[in-house]
């Protein structure tokens, strides 16, 4: 019989008998495909707690594996290997090495939140995907993604000034990700915007880029936010046992 979610099984663990007859009945080929048994010996018993310690992962323990998230998923529809339900299962079981097999596609989540609306247990699978991608970066299993670099420059600017200056965010993002500001599409975008936006707004944007305006009385809020973010980061590093490893 067909094997459900066959793409999740390693090819080497699938055995198909091309010629097999049982009690006179030919069960060759597709009808005699078996999954070989295997033993997993490496576990990360803290894995669920580690993911749950990161923003978005808090409610992963509620999952009851109904699969509604994967059924609703935008990316799963085009890539069956992208499977939030399966990854949540691996995380809850502590199968770290199994999860790492898919480390290069987990970031593909487009945050459409269809899974979140479909989930009957309020797990927020989209949040778990974000937390998992962040976990992979913090653990050093994957490179820092451009989206993380963007989040960082965006947040740093808000923390510093209480305002967003789009031009500065873009410049810093391109610098941090090693991208040239003279890329054709970017030059065309800026030229197109410059020809459409009112002159007064362009002057305002130019001035803001030089003067770097701040929200009045922002210093106190900035310090409080900075302290809170540091506390959250320290808690996450502690949950992932990165503070201990860093001290060794
Ligand atoms: S938010 Fe991510 S995981 Fe959820 S449905 Fe969209 S692409 Fe899939
Ligand atoms: S929809 Fe929710 S409960 Fe169902 S498998 Fe996905 S995360 Fe788990």
Structure description:
With 248 residues, the protein is mostly helical. Helices cover 53% and strands 4% of the residues. Strands 1-4 form a two-stranded antiparallel ribbon. Helix 8 crosses helix 9. The model has no long low-confidence stretch (mean pLDDT 89). The structure holds iron/sulfur cluster (2 copies). The site of one iron/sulfur cluster has 15 residues, from helix 2 and helix 4.
Q: Which features does this protein show?
A:
single chain; 248 residues; mainly alpha; two-stranded antiparallel ribbon; binds iron/sulfur cluster
Please give the number of β-strands: 4
Give the low-confidence spans. Answer: none
Largest sheet: 2 strands, antiparallel
Q: What structural class results from the helix and strand content? A: mainly alpha
- Shape label: elongated
Distance between the termini: 52 Å
Enumerate the strands of the largest sheet in spatial order, edge to edge or round the barrel: 1-4
Give helix and strand order, one letter per element, not per position.
EEEEHHHHHHHHHHHHH
What small-molecule ligands were found? iron/sulfur cluster
Q: Helicity range of the residues?
A: 40-55%
Portion in beta strands: under 5%
Give the helix tally. Answer: 13
């Amino acid at each position: 019989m067909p094997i459900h979610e066959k793409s999740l099984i390693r090819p080497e663990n699938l055995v198909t008998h091309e010629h097999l007859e049982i009690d006179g009945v030919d069960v060759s080929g597709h009808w005699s495909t078996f999954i070989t048994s295997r033993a997993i010996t490496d576990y990360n018993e803290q894995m669920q707690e580690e993911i749950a310690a990161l923003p978005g992962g808090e409610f992963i323990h509620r999952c009851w594996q109904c699969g509604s998230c994967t059924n609703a998923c935008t990316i799963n529809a085009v890539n069956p290997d992208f499977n939030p339900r399966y990854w949540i299962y691996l995380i809850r079981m502590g199968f770290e090495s199994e999860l790492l097999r898919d480390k290069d596609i987990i970031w593909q989540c487009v945050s459409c939140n269809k899974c979140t609306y479909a989930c009957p247990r309020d797990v927020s699978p989209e949040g778990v995907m974000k937390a998992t991608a962040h976990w992979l970066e913090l653990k050093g299993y994957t490179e820092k993604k451009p989206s993380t670099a963007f989040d960082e420059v965006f947040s740093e600017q808000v923390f510093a000034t209480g305002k967003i200056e789009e031009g500065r965010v873009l410049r810093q993002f391109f610098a941090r990700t090693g991208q040239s500001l003279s890329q054709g599409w970017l030059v065309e975008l800026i030229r197109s915007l410059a020809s459409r936006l009112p002159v007064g707004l362009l002057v305002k944007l130019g001035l803001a880029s030089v003067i770097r305006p701040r929200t009045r009385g922002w210093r106190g809020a900035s310090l409080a936010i900075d302290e809170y973010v540091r506390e959250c980061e320290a808690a996450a590093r502690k949950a992932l046992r990165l503070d201990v490893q860093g001290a060794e």
